[in-house]
Amino acid sequence: MLRLIPLVSALALSAAAAMADDIRVGVSPGEHAEIMEEVAKVAAGAGLNIDVVEFSDYVVPNQALADGDLDANSFQHRPYLENQIKDRGFDLVEIATTITTPMGVYSDKIEDLAALPEKAKVAIPNDPTNGGRALLLLQDLGLITLAEGTGLVPSPLDVQDNPKGLKFLELDAAQLPRALADADIAVINTNYAIAAGLSPKDDSIAMEKAESPYVNIIVARNGDQDQPWVKTLVEAYHSPEVKAFIDEKYHGAVLTSW
């Protein structure tokens, strides 16, 4: 739990939230947690107190939100939410876009993908959406070809052409930075790369293109969209103060959606 220090924002936030309110927002480590701390400072000036709750994986935050343990979460992109709703039946909705964090390829063994050896070990996330995202990136980089019609959630079984005979290691996304000791390359989400002390700009050997469908979002339970705190939360997130924080801290590794 974070100790929040109220900070009066110059932003004219919603008068509907002028009375003190408390919400719990789930985040993943790294930039999502760091940004939400800044959002909390801005929101406090409008009477909205945000308890930022950090989760170490991508599985629990949606369940916690569906169960009522959270009021909102901010850690996932649209394809992941759509897949979670399809597979687990969550009645959750997007209330705002936030940031895009390009996925990167990292290695402790090579400095250029041209040096990737035959039968190299490639670590990717083990959840369907981020694993599929990693495979799509590897396809864009010319390392593999995926079967047609797999959409945004291909799996290693959908790899149709694999000239180097790459071996895929499917691991929990949070563990991928540690896999660099054993794998030849790892495809890592930006939040976990930053949390592990990696710089997407300086340490990655390849990055996802900016034109990506993987914009991140704030999510709430269906039915809460019109709650006064929702507007205040979104306005605080989309504030000039938060945008300046993101631009100054991440130097292009994290891109704002507004």
From TrEMBL:
It comes from the Bacteria. Belongs to the NlpA lipoprotein family. InterPro entries: Lipoprotein_NlpA. It comes from Rhodovulum kholense. GO terms for cellular component: membrane. Residues 1-20 form the signal peptide. This is D-methionine transport system substrate-binding protein. It is found in: Membrane. Keywords: Lipoprotein, Membrane, Palmitate, Signal. It is a lipid-anchor. CDD domains: PBP2_lipoprotein_IlpA_like (cd13598).
